[in-house]
Amino acid sequence: MTLDTPRPLSESVSVVLVHGAFVDASGWRKVYYTLSEEGYEVLVVQNSAVTFEQDVERTKSVIAEAKHPVVLVGHSYGGAVITEAGIEEKVLSLVYLAAFVPDAGESVFDLASQAVPGAETAPLLPPKDGFIKIDPQKFAAAFSADIDPAEAQFMAAAQRPWGLEAVQGKITSAAWKTKPSFYLLATEDRMIPAQAQAAMAARAGAAVVEVSSSHAVMLSQPDEVAELITTAAEPNQQRS
């Protein structure tokens, strides 16, 4: 590459991936490889899912490690984390994947408690020792109905308990009010109803792409996820 040749976009933007509840960062594997092969620096946050504040600080720490301006991506509960952490100056844009998008003063619990007419409720077990889990017998149907059944079964068995302090953590600053936002709406989601996703995306003024997917969109539709992240990285998508 000569000095006169512009650097490819992928070499001037970093991507930070933030997973949601009940899973860990390994769910990003397909998206990670796709974006890495395109030349992006891709960093992955491993949430504690114990307290909201801890997960926000972990995400801010990873943002600080990035070599370039950041496209910040959050799945499910990770949407709340990126809403708070995305206020960092280094963040260019936000990408929400079947995610919660709280406003200041709201928590994931507040949003998840809002009834959606005609929609199924997530099959959560009663809290135990300060954590909640999905009923393992109903995990696949609710969370990951469109991936390999064996993988969905393992995810149910290996699910990571979600701390009530993380669920109830309140947003203090909503980054989507000042950063361009993008939303991948999973129409077949049985954890966060599509109607709720649409309402949150509209409130945030996010550009919406719909995809026929379960809640586990990063596993079932990794190419669509990577494509939206790439779109969010384009300079003409950034607000002045």
Automatic annotation (TrEMBL):
<feature type="domain" description="AB hydrolase-1">
    <location>
        <begin position="15"/>
        <end position="227"/>
    </location>
</feature>
<dbReference type="InterPro" id="IPR052897">
    <property type="entry name" value="Sec-Metab_Biosynth_Hydrolase"/>
</dbReference>
<dbReference type="Pfam" id="PF12697">
    <property type="entry name" value="Abhydrolase_6"/>
</dbReference>
<dbReference type="InterPro" id="IPR000073">
    <property type="entry name" value="AB_hydrolase_1"/>
</dbReference>
<protein>
    <submittedName>
        <fullName>Pimeloyl-ACP methyl ester carboxylesterase</fullName>
    </submittedName>
</protein>
<dbReference type="InterPro" id="IPR029058">
    <property type="entry name" value="AB_hydrolase_fold"/>
</dbReference>
